[in-house]
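Q: I'm teaching a short session on how sequence maps to structure, and I want students to see two examples side by side rather than one. Could you give me a first protein with its sequence written out and its structure tokens following it? Keep the formatting plain so it prints cleanly on a handout.
A: Of course. Example one:
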Amino acid sequence: MERLDKFLSQCGIGTRSQVKPMLKAGQITVNGVVTRDGSVKIDPAASEIAFNGQILTGRRRVVIMLNKPEGYVTATEDAKEQTVMALLPREYAVQEVKPVGRLDKATEGLLLFTNDGELLHRLISPKNEVPKIYYARHTGQATAEDVSAFRQGLTLKDGTQCLSATLEPLGPGESRITVCEGKYHQVRRMMASRGMEVTYLERQQEGFLTLGGLDRGSVRELTQEEIALLDKSVKL
């Protein structure tokens, strides 16, 4: 048994907050009866749930981890570039998974995919403070002043304000950076604002998840235990 609004979200018609007005408008039926309460428990295998008269079959809820290589753009489709979707086994195409946030074309490392719209939204929302940890090679040497500037929250060259982040110098031309948001090319732009050009970037961790021994270009499906911990981390 599971909540109706969670089932609807997993079917891909919207996040839980987005399906609320659909429920209120009477667009959802369970076994032919209009149901407006998203907290109602249903058995997808035994109930007929429909959206505007169209029966929803549901999907298996999945979360996938990819060790992204460089050279792929993070998008579901692109007219000119190879996307990260090309790296996923065909069995996940029917599950309609989407990337959780994005890594730019040159950045490697941990990238999640899911077909749970609500989980995706919460993982990328800055208010949930899911840490994303990167290893960077760069020009110059990070100083104590740079560390302090990251902690206080940087203002980028175009005026964009970043939340507090962690910069940990590892040695000449090497640093570890932790952010809890995902602005466009954020880590590269943050380092550039302090006079350091990133020459290599790898995301090594998101939340409690690490690459472990996953080979570059390979994928693995998260276990139900790991997904439950993800849910808990974003209060889902």
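Q: Perfect. Now a second example for contrast.
A: Example two:
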Amino acid sequence: MEENERWKKRFHSYCKALLQLETALQQKHFSVLEKDGVIKRFEFTFELAWKTLQDKLYNEGYIDIKGPKPVIKQAFQDHIITDGQEWIDMLTDRNNSTHLYDESAALHIFDKIQTTYFQLLKDLQSNLEQ
């Protein structure tokens, strides 16, 4: 598959996942189970976000940049994302959410999804559409 097509297909999947996350966030009140569902959708969307960035960077000639942290750093340097530290924080929270369950940590991540991370993911979509 041509690399240009690969990143565009991944981007299409990312946009669909982001829409699912957005739909989940449109509620006013969330049960514990619904919060857990939002976190799971966030995890999936974040994975597609950094993998889309990796494919995009590869398409632009960065063939040796692999893995979420190096991809985030390069995407920030190339102005594809605007807040590198928030993206690193998002990576940390995604890692924490998938490897342990602590109710207070889950609530923290849920709040960050609502207040910060969702907007960063939307901004990425806008930047990649241009």
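Q: What should students look for in example two?
A: Point them to this: The helical segments are 3-25, 32-59, 68-77, 84-99, 103-129. Also worth mentioning: The radius of gyration is 15 Å.
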